[in-house]
Amino acid sequence: MRLELGRIRIKDVQFGPATKVEDGVLYVDRAAIEAIVREDERIADVTVELAKPGEEVRIIPVKDVIEPRVKVEGAGGVFPGMVSKVETVGDGRTHVLSGAAVVTCGKVVGFQEGIIDMTGPGADYTPFSKLNNVVVVCEPIAGLPQHEHEVAIRMAGLKVAAYLGEAGRDIEPDEVDVYECLPLLEQVNAYPDLPKVVYVYMLQSQGLLHDTYVYGVDAKKILPTLIYPTEVMDGAIVSGNCVSACDKNTTYHHQNSPVIHDLLARHGRDINFIGVVITNENVTLADKERSSNFASKLVEMLGAEGAVVSEEGFGNPDADLIMNCVKLEKKGIKTVLVTDEYAGRDGASQSLADANPLANAVVTAGNANEVVNLPPMKKVIGHPEAANIIAGGWDGSLASDGSITAELQVITGATNELGFNKLSAREA
Amino acid sequence: MVKEIERAGLPVVHMCTVVPISLTVGANRIVPTVAIPHPLGNPAMGHDEEKQLRRRLVERALTAMTTEVEGQTVFEEK
Description:
Number of strands of chain A: 24
Structural class of chain A: alpha/beta
Distance between the termini of chain B: 27 Å
Number of domains of chain B: 1
Largest sheet of chain B: 3 strands, parallel
Shape of chain B: globular
Order of helices and strands of chain B: HEHEHE
Radius of gyration of chain B: 13 Å
Shape of chain A: globular
Strand content of chain A: 25-35%
Radius of gyration of chain A: 21 Å
Number of strands of chain B: 3
Largest sheet of chain A: 6 strands, mixed
Oligomer: heterodimer
Largest interface: A-B, 16 and 11 residues
Number of helices of chain B: 3
Strand order of the largest sheet of chain B: 1-2-3
């Protein structure tokens, strides 16, 4: 598979009579977006707002963040199995509106949605404060069950992102990156002297609004399988989860996974990155055992000497992470784990729900329990009172002046376990 | 919780879904349960079948409670 990713740098977003990209400005036809969202009868009301870097704007509660992309050459379209036909993607050419994003917002679906501040201390914790965001605020019809509410908003976000992505179809990108991934035997033979590394990509799949979709399939229903890195870049994996905002992988994270990009950057230099295994995080012990058995067996079958394993979420998925680690290590495959920590507000408690001495190389993305204070903003898009109920907040998190005191958990992407954030730690 | 109650001299049965975590935290009597969102029930079952499941789990826990153990023991379904 060979994917050309053409990045069109978006430096501003504005409303306009027609959606288009001109001189790095994304013009957005507000009415067209509202019409797309209103196609779904489950959504009673929709408004579109813009949020740009540096503005005194807070977005709450945030469900998903999605990068607008469009497939311009090669099979299929973006988000296959969701908004495009379920064609295999990852080959050809895709244009990216780099620097822009769709953010979905509106009445809280569950209790684990997040906050994006566009300026101030909160902005430093989230990568999405640096983007020109098209915020789609969707309000559901009365009495809509939570799971349908989640589906409606998820689909609205993906459809709007696909619509905006179309504006980049005929634009000459500012830069084009080429990613080439070979069939396994060719890949192995390409760099016979370099250590062979596989990425084990854990997808949140606990159900009850903690889900991920692969080509439209609910990831809790898959057995671990192989995927090309370029398929992921074309939107084969999308977020359907409201799991804690700080360490969920939004669709934007999947599209831009730093683990995949960094492994590709070092491919052929000091490692031979031979493949990606996707696996899940299910809620019964038998499922956890089966999936970790399969994932570790696939890595062994590929002949890897090392594996990078990333987690999504926290708590019982820590058990999946440790199972994957232990089973790989016992096969003689070295592992590095990427996770975050729930170590208490003072950072003194045990960081993960499970542990094992074989987990001896771990990268942390920060402590989600740390308490942060977010000053009031001039404008709030969405529902500020959600701060009192989302995970990491408590009754009283929202003060009368509009400031919010809560755990870092509440900030979308703050401790992202693909490393798409600034926090980490190193041994003193 | 499990360890502190045991420290006070009372035997504890930890009923939980993710047995490896229970082993890591040091529970001595462990009864595996159904699933994380519904450890002691199963919404996929009918009412009568689920009641039997629940009774079996509680009976297994009581058996575990009254069984002498040498170190950490998982009481699997027979």
